[in-house]
Amino acid sequence: MLPAYATLPERVWFYAFRVLCGLILLFLILPILVIMPLSFNADSFLMYPMSGFSLRWYEDFFTSAPWRQALMNSLIISPLATVVAMVFGTMAAIGLTRVDFPGKALLTAVLISPMVVPVVIVGVATYIVFAPIGLTGSYTGLVLVHAVLGVPFVVTTVSATLQGFDDNLVKAAASLGANPITAFFRVTLPVVAPGIISGGLFAFAISFDEVVVTLFLASPEQTTLPRQMFAGIRENISPTIAAVATMLTLLSTLMLITLEGLRRRNERLRGIAS
Asked: Within a domain: residue 131?
């Protein structure tokens, strides 16, 4: 908030900086805002001006067999990959946070490496490893590699949540007769749940949006929604893609709102604990 005693240059910079930030954000979000109205275009081309309003492209998405199969595959692969990433990512984060051992920094770097390594390299490496053991062209292979891509986000968010966790709570539970599993589910899990869910949402978004690794590993029967969109852009740009993009944008917005709610809940829990 601008102080009452601010000078004229400070006032000018205060408002100019906010206008500049607003223009930058508008520039970044403008492509999304442009494509969304085209999903309601009555024409068969992505172009302005629009000749009329129609829901035909949303109807095409829900009635077309290839699009429905792609959606079904994404709804199978992404939730399973998210669950696997949440379980293993949470276990890794707890182990890295509570225990000090030689090579801890190296292990942490390996766990979060899928976040920084180019996805093309991950796709090629995964294909080389999965091909000899028959995991290419299978749901199992796609779930595993999507989970690997999501684990770094779970590790990061859960580790951040555990930084403010008081280990004396676990010790107190143990002194009252709780075994480690009971202490985890009744003491640790409720506190780190916002971090786990946040990481799971990131893992789901990464899996649901993944196309490069899917191109390497998936057979035509495992075509996911992003891969179907990629094929549609390459062969024939249909307004159905705009409809799918609009729905994915709304889904991403809902996930961001959920993440913000979890962040605020986590801050309230930390305030109560302190």
From this structure: yes
**How sure is the predictor about 151, in pLDDT bands with cuts at 50, 70 and 90?**
very high
Cα gap 187→189, rounded to integer Å:
6
**Domain count across the chain:** 1
Decide: helix, strand or coil at residue 151.
helix
Stated pTM of the model: 0.80
In this model, does residue 83 exceed pLDDT 90? Answer: yes
CA distance 175 to 187: 13
Range of the domain at 111: 64-273
* Cβ–Cβ under 8 Å, residues 238 and 232: yes
Looking at the domain assignment, is residue 49 inside a domain?
no
Name the token pair of 18: 């906010």
Residue whose C-alpha is closest to residue 148's, from 110, 98, 197: 110
What CATH number is attached to the domain comprising 122? 1.10.3720.10
| Tokens found for residue 9 | 């240059």
Q: Is residue 259 part of a domain?
A: yes
What pLDDT is attached to residue 272?
A: 52
- Tell me the sheet residues that pair with 163: none
Tell me whether residue 69 is in a domain: yes
Q: How far apart are CA 78 and CA 208, in angstroms?
A: 6
Dihedral of alpha carbons 83, 89, 94, 99, sign: positive
Determine the average pLDDT of the residues in 263-270: 67
Which residue from 106, 99, 102 is spatially nearest to 159, judged by alpha carbons?
99
Cα separation, 114 vs 269, in Å, equals: 31
- Separation of alpha carbons 206 and 90, rounded Å: 17
